[in-house]
Model the fold of this input.
Amino acid sequence: MIALPLLVERRQLVTPGDLLAEGDFQPGDNTYKSNGKIISQRLGLAEFKGKRVSVVALKGPYVPRVGDLVIGRIIDIVLGGWLVDINSPYTANLSVSDVTGKPFSPEMVSLSRILAIGDIVVAKVAAFDRTRDPAITIRERGLGRVEGGVIIDLTPTKVPRLIGRKGSMINMIKQLTKCEIIAGQNGKVLIKGRNLKMVELAIHSVRMIEEQAHTSGLTDRIRRFIEEEKEKASRMI
Amino acid sequence: MSITPQTEPLTKIKSRQMIEFLKSGKRLDGRTLTQHRNVKIEAGVIGKAEGSAQVTLGNTRVLVGVKIETGPPYSDTPNMGVLTVNAELLPLAHEVFEPGPPDENSIELARVVDRSIRESKALDLESLVIIPAKLAYVVFVDIYILNHDGNLFDASEYAAISALLNAKLPVVKVEGEEVKPTGEFKELPVRECPISVTIAKVDEALLVDPTLEEEVMASAKITITTTSTGKICAIQKSGGGAFTPQEILEAQRIARSKAEEIRSLIPGWGGRCG
Amino acid sequence: MGERKLIDENGLRVDGRRPDELRPIKMEVGLLANADGSAYIEQGKSKIIVAVYGPKEVHPKHLGLTGRAIIRCRYHMAPFSTPERKSPAPSRREIELSKIIREAFEPVIFSEYYPRSMIDIFIEVLQSDGGTRCAGITAASLALADAGIPLRDLVAACAVGKVDGQLVVDLNDVEDKEGEADMPVAYIPALNQISLLQMDGQLTEEEFAKALEMAKEACMKIYQLQKQTLKQKYVEAKEAVEKGEEA
Done:
């Protein structure tokens, strides 16, 4: 038998059109198969798992998936609920009954007293398919209107890197900075903390992930960064 | 801005049937892959126009009128007459055509026909200047789509060249500042007979002279114009698909041989080529 | 025509190039902060900037397609891009080019992934010296990739023409205007398909076949540059931080 060639290395930077493997392989995320060839669809890093070849994209739009945690902004109030911008090609619907737990009745108090245009919510994608806009819910612990903190942008495809394997990256940053960090899959990150310096460090850590998501040794680099900065700060006092 | 068009797809049954037919080298209307529909060309159908022709390709029907006036030549071509091609996708030709200014489809159509005529040097523009940089003949070719059943590029091109071959040039005399018609006419200097052939790619098959149904099914089309001496003078790939280089070379061979057939049907050309 | 020689006695062109030689090309990605993807190209004296927005919501909603994203494309020349001021209103040429450029991208964009949405491609020619539709396509590919829009491949484009009886690649403005033929080609290497092809002027059958081959080769050179450009920023960032580590 002829060995079937795998044409790139793990974590190799690839572009759309790059040939990744030929022969008995299966196309994973961000790849497609054409005439027995597995080809990349996106700029990203090659990954393999068994016979499955995929690409971890460095950039890309956010497409909702049921169960995703997202951070959105109320952009309109319509009959029966709110429209929420979730940084995606599809505007999400949040229904009154989801928020109040009661069926919607038109004589009910003005919806803007519950959630106003411009309010930020942490929500979960409850339903979404190709034919209809996503429905989101805030009826779960930890979800709901955001009362404070800073929201920063992170390329949606890099959110998994912020979270890290089993939460390793985000937990480390939380622990070191003592900040609360909520990573919306839609590329919105909420950071809350009492100490301004710590909030700054957490923000900077997320920026490092934005710029260095494709590099190795990132977790250690961020740990070192936060520790050094904390030390500097303590010496100044 | 150009926007992906919304096209009504064929019914599943029909599209499946078309592809099945194509696999055995046949088309739904009984033609072979490289066969044109019935081509009918009638020249001189509009008496008020200096030249005119009506072409039918199956159910596709196109009328072209040529009007000739005098006016200033373009500043960058002071020694040439002016050729202007315009196309109207009339609302009476199909329910999808809306009245209004020309859209990208009518502009593309006009420009593809213009390119065939201009690049083949069919019209001897140099002989159409009256006073260099001041006065020249302006030849308007207006394409009127009367019924749309596919392959508007070719039907329009055949009608345009036929109308030009049919056209009479009003002789003028210049007296001081005034341009006066003498009442006499001479032949419009048409020196070439470019023929475009459009080939659509449906599934893997290359189809000459596609009907509207075939165009809906086609991933892409290519229009190749050749001259009577066998040179290629214009090409336009259109539609959202693509061709392999081999398909393009094959399309070129088909276009070349089909063009000869069509050229023999162009009224008025036979008399001039020799 | 024929007023000036376009190929000299050494077989070189007006700007000193060999027949199969591209003009100097400079590409850059991600230079516009607001766009989801952006790119800039200089090919000879032609300068073009491209922005891609989307996929985003279609307004009004009924214009969206249920099975795919619609693609909108605008090729536009700046009033100051040409020797004589060009009216900013879209010309018939620009309208036609917007259409065929959009059609050149339809086969590579996985538009079926984003139903009911739209993807905008804005191509602005800042300075025109021939070959702007091709350079615009080359740059738009980079902008689409930079936006992270899934693509079957990058599209690379280049014209082949005939000047003084000889086939040459990547025509500049003089060669385009005074030459005997011009054939812009957009090529999708991974699929071995041509998604834009136009021609004006006159070519024999043999010349046409050779021109197509030359266009493919020129596109492949541009394709390599496109890939390098896309990777460059990331490679530099990676080297910068990882080197720091070793030191």
